[in-house]
Specification:
By secondary structure, this protein is of the alpha/beta class. It folds into two domains: 3-26 and 84-224, 3-Layer(aba) Sandwich (Rossmann fold), CATH 3.40.50; 29-80, no CATH class. Helix content is 48%, strand content 16%. It has helices spanning 3-11, 19-23, 28-35, 39-50, 56-67, 71-80, 89-98, 111-121, 155-167, 179-182, 203-208, 217-224, and strands spanning 14-17, 102-110, 128-131, 133-135, 141-144, 172-176, 192-196, 211-213. A hairpin with a 5-residue loop joins strand 4 (133-135) and strand 5 (141-144). The longest helix is centred in the C-terminal third of the chain and has 13 residues, at 155-167. Pathway: Amino-acid biosynthesis; L-serine biosynthesis; L-serine from 3-phospho-D-glycerate: step 3/3. GO terms for molecular function: L-phosphoserine phosphatase activity; magnesium ion binding. Keywords: Amino-acid biosynthesis, Hydrolase, Magnesium, Metal-binding, Serine biosynthesis. Its cofactor is Mg(2+).
Length: 226
């Protein structure tokens, strides 16, 4: 990375991470859908949404409606599936915190599935910004929380702006594998964006990132070097 990028990463007091295909090696929604026997249907919907023509929130609503996740089925999934943490992430998070930085998780995935990941990595619940599945009293699927930043298009960028303003971070970094993560580098949002290609490599992210890495060890070295 350039000296300017290194300087921004060293001075950043807050670092936001995408979760699916970044902090974790899998895509939470797809994994849960497969567990519920709706993997192919949901994958088809995801492809349609990515091809345009379906709004972000509408796509989320459609996928959840097909999946019909119950409180019990989500708990059963989590009990039988340990978080698949990407190599080097625990060491990177430790290094960031040792250097006085606060770590946040910003995801289009679900809080229910991100909570065990956050717990494993020592990220407090209040530093999670993600979607929330809502259940009826009997535990059946109800809906999702429309107030969450990431329940709508452009939500990750809005979440990062909110974090920066609320917690007073003068310099903010964002790390992720997708175009919605790259969008977070915007006025009032992330000052520097690190693209991660250890799971998925997307041309737009590789081209647009201030620094693109395929493993987190290099990032940890930069954080730890004085």
């Amino acid at each position: 990375p350039s000296e300017d990028v290194i300087d921004l990463l060293r001075t950043a007091t807050g670092v936001c991470f995408d979760v699916d295909s970044t902090v974790c090696t899998d895509e939470g929604i797809d994994e849960l859908a497969a567990f519920l026997g709706k993997g192919e249907e949901v994958a088809e919907m995801t492809n349609k949404a990515m091809g345009g023509g379906v709004g972000f929130r509408e796509a989320l609503e459609m996928r959840l409606s097909v999946m019909q996740p119950t409180r019990q089925s989500v708990e059963t999934y989590l009990a039988n599936n340990e978080p698949k943490i990407s190599p080097g992430v625990p060491e990177l998070f430790d290094a960031l915190r040792a250097n006085g930085k606060t770590v946040y998780l910003v995801s289009g995935g679900f809080r229910q599935m991100i909570a065990p990941v956050a717990a494993r990595l020592g990220v407090p619940p209040e530093n999670i910004f993600a979607n929330n599945i809502l259940f009826n009293e009997d535990g059946s699927y109800k809906s999702f929380d429309p107030e969450e930043f990431t329940s709508k298009a452009g939500g990750k960028a809005e979440a990062v702006k909110h974090i920066k303003a609320k917690f007073g971070h003068g310099t903010m970094a964002m790390v992720g594998d997708g175009a919605t993560d790259l969008e977070s580098r915007a006025p009032g949002g992330a000052d520097v964006f690190v693209g991660y290609g250890g799971v998925q490599q997307r041309a737009a992210v590789m081209d647009g990132a201030d620094w693109f890495v395929t493993d987190f060890d290099k990032f940890t070295e930069v954080v730890d070097s004085k």
